[in-house]
Design brief:
The chain is of the alpha/beta class. Helices cover 47% and strands 15% of the residues. Helix 1 packs across helix 17 and helix 3 crosses helix 4. Bound molecules: uridine-diphosphate-N-acetylglucosamine. The site of uridine-diphosphate-N-acetylglucosamine has 18 residues, from helix 1 and helix 5.
């Protein structure tokens, strides 16, 4: 066994990556004799509200290297990340590259690493929506195929990986690192005063997020969603922090603008982690097409209506407060009335206990012993 610290190069790129990497970086940093870390930000997300605020609030060390790739088509963005990442990995020669989640940065960096002979660890492996029209599904499946270590959040993920022929000894059920971050910051989020600043009373508003291309780039789907949301907004105002991708859809929807004009849809710029967590915890309902928010509401025990036809996170349906409602306005309104009148009972999934990153570090430590 080598006495040299095991060098792990971790990658972040887009907003949902930051809260996953934060506890892993902290767990690795707490074992300096075992690990050396390098953090690379691809720059897939670059607006301060989509990136920097998370580093500040979650005390993530500044990235050692920023690739500044920015936006583009899938091919352009993936290719730009690969071209920029390759010389970094070739120069640093880390012992392992660690990627999280399912964004384009996840796949692009994994592919570069394995082709340079560097093993990859994928955190949040094995999730499957079985919907290949989602770019994330392609990113997840391909990243898993080439990863040496597969860290999973829920039992279904392991079944998916085994079915795809991945060896059982690569798979480690560690729990949910994103929930580590939530539990760690929950108290602090309560003291930010987000509700007071927005003039909101606890349990008297809904919180909405929308950014999936299938929902916001398709005018007919978006219009249908707005019709359903308008019905719900008669009962509770809807707070809507708007993802940059969603802006054009809002601008071309007179119905959404009318809702905003009469104060039933409260449009905000993207929020930081703490404000969003504070709003989520005290919402009467959360309406979303995000993946991570289905998990966060599960732990918070807040009813979640997922505006998609499928989810890669089935445990949130089995144990959590999540309901899949798709995009049909009637189904959406019916589901809202059901959770309004009879909220689902919450239940926290196994190992979503705030200690997942510690388990990741323990597995990496054992792996480094074997690899060293
Ligand atoms: C990406 C991820 C998605 C994740 C989401 C979270 C992929 C394929 N998609 O989607 O899985 O759920 O992040 O937010 O990786 N833009 C800005 N400022 C930014 C970043 C983006 O204005 O800082 C705008 C640009 O117009 C860009 C568009 O948003 O073209 C989309 O950005 P992109 O990174 O391509 O995908 P997201 O929709 O953000």
């Amino acid at each position: 066994m080598s006495s040299r610290p095991f060098h792990i190069l971790s990658v972040v790129g887009a907003r949902p990556n930051f809260m996953k990497v934060a506890p892993i970086q902290a767990a690795l940093a707490s074992l300096p004799s075992r690990f050396r870390t390098t953090l690379v930000h691809t720059g897939q997300h670059y607006d301060p509200a989509m990136s920097r605020v998370f580093f500040d609030e979650l005390a993530i060390p500044r990235p050692d290297i920023d690739l500044n790739v920015g936006s583009g088509s899938h091919a352009q963005q993936t290719a730009a990340i690969m071209s920029a990442f390759e010389p970094v990995v070739a120069g640093a020669r880390p012992d392992l590259v660690l990627v999280v989640g399912d964004v384009n940065s996840t796949l692009a960096c994994s592919l570069v690493a394995v082709k340079l002979g560097i093993p990859v660890a994928h955190v949040e492996a094995g999730l499957r929506s079985f919907d290949d029209t989602m770019p994330e599904e392609i990113n997840r499946r391909l990243t898993d195929q080439i990863s040496a270590l597969l860290f999973t959040t829920e039992p279904a993920a392991e079944h998916n990986l085994l079915r795809e022929g991945l060896a059982a000894d690569r798979i480690h059920f560690v729990g949910n690192v994103m929930i580590d971050t939530l539990l760690h910051h929950r108290e602090r989020a309560r003291s930010t005063g987000a509700l007071e600043r927005l003039g909101l009373a606890p349990d008297a508003y809904g919180l909405l997020t929308l950014h999936r291309p299938s929902n916001v780039d398709d005018e007919a789907v978006f219009d249908g969603l707005v019709r359903g949301l308008a019905e719900i907004a008669r009962d509770v105002p809807l707070v809507f922090p708007v993802h940059p991708r969603t802006r054009p859809a809002l601008d071309r929807s007179p119905a959404a603008r009318a809702l905003a004009d009469n104060g039933r849809l409260i449009l905000l710029d993207p929020l930081g982690y703490l404000d969003f967590l504070a709003l989520m915890e005290r919402a009467r309902v959360v309406l979303t097409d995000s993946g991570g928010i289905q998990e966060e509401t599960t732990v918070l025990g807040v009813p979640c209506l997922t505006l998609r036809e499928n989810t890669e996170r089935p445990i949130t349906l089995e144990l959590g407060t999540n309901t899949l409602v798709g995009t049909d306005p009637h189904r959406l309104v019916t589901a809202w009335r059901r959770v309004r009148d009879d909220p689902p009972a919450p239940n926290v999934p196994p190992l979503w206990d705030g200690r997942a990153a510690e388990r990741v570090a323990a597995v990496l430590d054992a792996y480094s012993g074997g690899a060293g």
